[in-house]
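Can anyone check this?
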Amino acid sequence: MFSEQTPILGRPTAGVAQIAAFILARPHGEYTTHDIEAVIVPVYWQLCAEVGIDPTLAVAQMIHETGNLTSFWAARPQRNPAGIGVTGQKQATPPPDTNGWAFNPQRQQWEAGVSFATWEHDAIPAHVGRLLAYALPIGAENPVQRAAIERALRYRALPARMRGSAPILKQLGRVHNPTGQGWASPGIDYGAKIAAIATRIVTGR
């Protein structure tokens, strides 16, 4: 149903209950059934539908990036849904400015990445708007899409050359992106992995 060639923009292919059921059928970290059914999935669905992204794809990316909400970055207080700003930088001592860093108590080190105060007002809008920025070139947005992108990029900027560089899932991977950068690095099969999760959500497998 989905492949790495699937466009990021598209109509919803699964409902809130179906997407939530997929997450809940697997280990989902510290997040409760209420968190997932009443907050995380409905907000993804609403924001994606408003801007023309298939919510199934955005949630599939979140599931892939966070191990179905089980990762350090997905957990509170980070609430990072998609590796936003997670560059792989790490150090044992606190950085001079801890903004854009989080202390990982399991690894006893500071790691670079963006933390979000809430899922509904911060993390999910930052993810959806950033995904939209990858899909749409500057000037191709309608007013609702433009507002979503501007809101997202206040959390972490995106170079102008990256705008519209990934209209399909495959191009989210650096090695397939025309700019030589991307959401994931190297990201050889990044789009294919998201597509596989999305297919499982829709088919219920």
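Reply from J.R.: I decoded it. The mean pLDDT is 97.
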